[in-house]
Amino acid sequence: MAKLLAALIQIEDSPRCRIRLAAPTGKAAARLTESLGAALRKLPLTDAQKALIPTEASTLHRLLGRPARQPAHALSRRQPAASGRAGGG
């Protein structure tokens, strides 16, 4: 994963580039944070490029902004889809 992120950063070397990391569980997010940090230290990136790569992963639920037990349809009513249509559909 670190090499893929490094390649993306090198292709789109822009401050507009925004990357977020998420995993299904808190334990998986912690492991992703740890392993990615170790791998990134070994890659040939500039400090500016390294600054574009997140240093911490979160859970999918936190990234989506909803509690783990909340039904998916409740999210779509609160936050319409990116297409701009109401109701998430």
From TrEMBL:
Keywords: Hydrolase. It holds the Pfam family AAA_19. The keyword Hydrolase applies. GO terms for molecular function: exodeoxyribonuclease V activity. Residues 67-89 are annotated as: Disordered. Gene3D superfamilies: P-loop containing nucleotide triphosphate hydrolases. It comes from the Bacteria. The keyword Hydrolase applies. Its EC number is 3.1.11.5. This is Exodeoxyribonuclease V subunit alpha. The gene is recD_2.
